[in-house]
From TrEMBL:
Signal sequence annotation: none
Domain named L27: residues: 96-154
InterPro entries found in the cross-reference section: GK/Ca_channel_bsu, Guanylate_kin-like_dom, L27_C, L27_dom, L27_dom_sf, MAGUK, P-loop_NTPase, PDZ
Keywords: SH3 domain
The name this protein goes by in its record: Protein associated with LIN7 2, MAGUK p55 family member a
Residue intervals of the PDZ domain: 176-255
TM segment ranges: none
Record's keyword annotation contains Repeat: no
Pfam families xrefs: Guanylate_kin (PF00625), L27 (PF02828), PDZ (PF00595), SH3_2 (PF07653)
Family assignment from sequence similarity: Belongs to the MAGUK family.
Length: 552
């Protein structure tokens, strides 16, 4: 229904503005893929402006989903679409026509005249050589095909020599390639030995070799500047390392078409340093990243090592694949003590039993989950439906929540807590109360048990999850004393209560950190509030990386 309404809205406006000729139909499928019909013309800037006004004024009763509208608005406001509209406007005014359609015949006639000419004319010889070049003849032939709008692969008589000469070239022909290299510059190529000769194993995305585009995966390096290569890749690496300027390579091509780069973006849930990884085949080409960075995976051919670009710092290199990292983490000893609990938490049989009761259902399973990468997608700025504050008891979650609501009640709200003991059947009214706040175009602030994150982190609630971490024990002790001395609370916490808060905060961080979008250490309530408010308001101003399941 949303696709139909958008098609009618956009198409109708274009029909009025452009006389019914240039109509753009946009279809939003379940996967949010935007398609343009085959005979489509991009609408002109005035029409684009009208479309944007229609989108902003779309009634709330439409069947369009919130994420659909955000996605469509982002596309229409993107510089690429606006540039296409400007280009279309220019092309409507400028009509390009071909000078001639039979240029290959003209070239053939000229060559016959040149061959029949007598004498040793240097200019005529040079012109003959240029006109007989295969690349030049292919260019002229392509021009003629475009001029007559004939895109079939039927060779003309004038190009028969090119086709014949190309067919006579054996597929295993040796090629001489000249690459440009600066002294000390890494080429971004790794090798393997195959049949006693070095073979290119991988070419790193964005490297010097990748930019020049002359070498491909599977090519066999036979010689470097006239030096024959043996079966030692290290010898080849050292030789290439010392070269500079133009380096001539004798190569046996693989004739493999490079795969199209995958459009996969990942957010890692762990920190990686290739310098300390004993499994990486080449530490120099490894890519370091931190938890929460965004990685653009450009090559997944190797099942263990992917090529990726860190969009935060712009570097490109190898990262462990999801399969390798999960396999590696499965063999790492868990952070448990002898009684079965996480280190730093309660020990002993009685306390263990109580802990199991408090963390009921799937909390113990959560600790065993192997979190490596999360696939994400880039979305234009938008207001999140919910703001979820997670933390141990006593870290100030409710103070931060109440302060946000009091300062800006038109932007933030919260659910009304139930006075009775909550039962499993009362979950639905709780979700309904969240939707009641969201329907008023406010962000619903929740301070819930970490176990609820599994249900909340979906496209239905679009949460921004903030972990309010406890400070060091000494800082927490001083903060509690200041609050008591100021008369802001009458509840006195013991030393054991403060230690439990710190330990519980560490346990939540270990078990649920893969859900967190932001971590704030509450060592000063005013500073923590300012940071929280700034980060939440920033979401409406900058593009966001969200789980891909929210979009597709």
């Amino acid at each position: 229904m949303f696709a139909d309404s958008c098609s009618q809205m956009i198409g109708g406006r274009n029909k009025n503005l452009n006389g019914g000729s240039n109509v753009m139909f946009i279809t939003i499928h379940c996967g949010l893929v935007v398609e343009l019909s085959p005979n489509v013309f991009v609408c002109s800037p005035p029409a684009m402006q009208q479309v944007m006004e229609n989108l902003k004024g779309l009634p709330s009763g439409t069947a369009a989903q919130d994420m659909d509208l955000i996605f469509l608005t982002g596309i229409m406001e993107s510089p690429i679409v606006r540039s296409l509209a400007k280009a279309h406007e220019r092309l409507e005014v400028m009509q390009l026509t071909a000078v001639g359609e039979n240029n290959m015949e003209l070239v053939t006639d000229i060559l016959e005249s040149l061959h029949s000419a007598e004498g040793d004319d240097v200019a005529a010889a040079e012109l003959t050589r240029i006109l007989e070049e295969p690349h030049f003849q292919c260019l002229i032939e392509t021009h003629d095909n475009v001029a007559v709008k004939s895109y079939e692969m039927s060779p003309t008589p004038g190009s028969s020599r090119v086709s014949l000469s190309s067919s006579l070239v054996p597929p295993d022909a040796v090629r001489m390639i000249g690459i440009q290299k600066r002294a000390g510059e890494p080429l971004g190529v790794t090798f393997r030995v195959e049949g006693g000769a070095p073979v290119i194993r991988r070419i790193l995305h964005g490297s010097a070799i990748a930019r020049q585009g002359l070498l491909h995966v599977g090519d066999v390096i036979l010689e470097v500047d006239g030096h024959a290569m043996g079966g030692d890749p290290k010898e080849l690496q050292e030789l290439l390392k010392d070269c500079s300027g133009t380096v001539t390579l004798k190569v046996l091509p693989s004739y493999r078409e490079p795969p199209a780069p995958p459009q996969v973006f990942l957010k890692p849930h762990f920190k990686y340093n290739p310098a300390t990884d004993n499994l990486i085949p080449c530490r120099e080409v490894g890519l370091a990243f931190s938890r929460g960075d965004v990685l653009h995976v450009v090559n997944k051919e190797d099942p263990n090592w992917w090529q990726a670009t860190n969009l935060v710092v712009g570097d490109t290199g190898l990262i462990p694949s999801q399969f390798l990292e999960e396999k590696r983490k499965a063999f790492v000893r868990r952070d448990w003590d002898s009684s079965g609990m996480l280190c730093g938490t309660m020990t002993g049989k009685k306390k263990k039993k109580k802990m199991m009761y408090l963390t009921s259902k799937n909390a113990e399973f959560d600790r065993y989950e192997l979190q490596t990468y999360e696939e994400v997608a880039r979305m234009p700025p938008f207001q999140r439906k919910t703001l979820v504050l997670i933390g141990a008891q006593g870290v100030g979650r409710r103070s931060l929540k109440n302060r946000l609501i009091v300062i800006n009640p038109l932007k933030y709200g919260t659910t009304v807590p139930s006075r009775r003991v909550r039962r499993p059947t009362s979950t639905a009214p709780r979700w309904d109360s969240i939707h009641e706040v969201v329907d008023t175009r406010r962000t619903c602030i929740l301070d819930v048990n970490p176990q609820a994150l599994k249900v909340l982190k979906t496209a239905e609630f679009m949460p921004f999850v903030v972990f309010i971490a406890a400070p060091e024990l000494d800082t927490l002790r001083a903060m509690h004393k200041a609050v008591v001395d100021a008369g802001l609370t009458t509840k006195l916490l013991t030393e054991n209560d403060l230690k439990k808060t710190v330990d519980e905060s560490a346990r939540i961080r270990r078990a649920y950190s893969h859900y967190f979008d932001l971590t704030i250490v509450n060592d000063h309530l005013d500073k923590a509030f300012d940071q929280l408010q700034e980060e939440v308001e920033h979401l409406c101003l900058q593009p966001q990386w969200v789980p891909v399941s929210w979009v597709f």
